[in-house]
Amino acid sequence: MNKKVAFITGITGQDGSYLAELLLAKGYQVHGLKRRASSLNTSRIDHIYQDPHQQDLPLFLHYGDMSDSLALCGLLQKIQPDEIYHLAAQSHVAVSFEAAEYTANVVALGTIRLLEAVRLSGLNCRFFQAATSEMYGKVTSLMQNEDTPFRPCSPYAIAKVGAYWTTVNYREAYGLFAVNGIMFNHESPRRGETFVTRKITRALAAIALGQQQCLYLGNLDARRDWGFAADYMDAAWRMLQQDTPSDFVIATGVQHTVREFLQCCAASLGISLSFSGSGLTEIATVLHCDPARTPALQPGAVILRIDPRYLRPSEVPSLCGDATRARTVLGWQPATDFTALCQMMMAHDLAQAKRQALLEANGYAR
Ligand code: NDP
Ligand code: GDR
Q1: Do the strands 272-276 and 283-288 form a parallel or antiparallel pair, or are they unpaired?
Q2: Where's the NAD(P)-binding domain (predicted)?
Q3: Dist. CA 244–CA 64, nearest whole Å
């Protein structure tokens, strides 16, 4: 039997790397869109990408950009995918306030470009769009499902609402198997370093080893529903295997504050924290720590302060997903809970920080 062919935009990102692994394990031929950068940007997939001169691996990378319709059309005609996973985006909410037009171009228009390329190529393929809980924005309901109205409050979220409705429109207007996965926050050791979870785990690792004194964050009260990225890519794949196309919320159904994420990660290093002050003066102080595990750290050390530069012009206060449909229709459920996620990310970043320290101590790194 011929291998199924998948095309992933955003393959070099967090989700793209997990999805590529999953599809290769299922026997797919995988093609990924990679944008040109002045330095290598494939670190998340280097472990699965091998020199095509050496080995016949079913993973192919193609240069292109979501701003380039002609390139997208040409690639689809060449690749002839059975399934498209559209993950490419300027995905940072805070950055979108500073790069609103660019974000709209890549996220909203980029999705139109890709769907038009599918339509004009006459392809009979299935299409997954990476929609987001950010579309709910300043929502008032405690939990959000597929019927909850959108109230976006950032350029990123507004662009994603456009991409969401474009996907629905191509399904209704042209009968395309096109679906939105409304994914709540999902993280991993491969998460971009400037998202709050990874920023916390990297900083705590450096603080534990005495390489950094203090971490600076913005809003600690924000509540998010955090899951593990690989679980969410499993849901994306399942969505494209259904008999009929429809949209699904993908979430754990459990929410925590940013403060709780920090506490949980610190606890996994044997550090307990005490929070005092409020608003911009809030700090976190080390209450207890284990000298055997974190010899550089002393009780009483202030390891967290607030920096107003990390506050957003408009914030999403609280999100928590109701993934009942995904559980019942897709048979999907997250395999990794909040504590396991914190421990996984913390262990990864501690090991990475130790490795770096060893290299530096032996003169092999800066
Ligand atoms: P990342 O930021 O890690 O990855 C984004 C990917 O898009 C990267 O491969 C990036 O390339 C690529 N990209 C960015 N701009 C362009 C462009 N102009 N042309 C082509 N490629 C581009 O995001 P995630 O993996 O975390 O998220 C994947 C998708 O899911 C995104 O659409 C995101 O908005 C959405 N999403 C994510 C959630 C999450 O919690 N992670 C939750 C809900 C939705 P490069 O590597 O070169 O930067
Ligand atoms: P989010 O993720 O905006 O939810 O978007 P992020 O990790 O950036 O922020 C989560 C919450 O933490 C608060 N916060 C900080 N955030 C960052 N980045 N840096 C800080 O220093 C900081 N301090 C507090 C934020 O204000 C926010 O409330 C992510 C992205 O992956 C999107 O692409 C995706 O669509 C959504 O998740 C679901």
Answers
A1: antiparallel
A2: 7-345
A3: 30
**Residue 112 buriedness (CB in 10 A; 0-12 / 13-18 / 19+):** middle
Percent share of the chain, pLDDT over 90: 94
12 is catalytic: no
Q: CA-CA-CA-CA torsion for 184, 49, 330, 248, nearest 10 degrees? A: 30
Task: Tell the residue nearest (CA) to atom 23 of ligand 2.
Answer: 218
Among 150, 160, 8, smallest CA distance to 92 is for 160
pLDDT (0 to 100) of residue 311: 98
Could you say which of 85, 136, 156, 164 is catalytic? 156
Query: Rounded to the nearest whole angstrom, what is the distance from the C-alpha of residue 134 to the centroid of ligand 2?
Result: 10
Q: How many whole angstroms separate alpha carbon 145 and alpha carbon 247?
A: 10
Beta bridge partners of 283: 276, 305
d(CA 10, CA 32): 7
Residue 2: predicted pLDDT: 82
Q: Cα of 314 to ligand 1 centre, how many Å?
A: 21
Residue 322, both tokens: 């109701």
Which pLDDT score, from 0 to 100, does residue 260 have?
98
Looking at the chain, which runs of residues are DSSP E strands?
5-9, 29-34, 59-63, 83-86, 126-132, 177-183, 186-187, 215-217, 223-224, 227-228, 248-250, 256-257, 272-276, 283-288, 302-306
Written as six digits, the tokens of 152 are: 């976006």
Report pLDDT for 229: 99
pLDDT at 52 over 80: no
In the numeric block, the tokens 């996973």 are attached to: 85
Q: How far is the CA of 12 from the centre of ligand 1 (A)?
A: 8
Q: CA–CA distance from 242 to each of 2, 76, 315 (Å)? A: 20, 23, 35
Are residues 278 and 293 in contact, defined by beta-carbon separation less than 8 angstroms?
no
Q: How far apart are CA 224 and CA 210, in angstroms?
A: 30
Tell me the whole-structure pTM to 2 decimals. Answer: 0.98
> Whole-angstrom Cα distance, residue 31 to residue 265?
36
| d(C-alpha 107, C-alpha 317), whole Å | 23
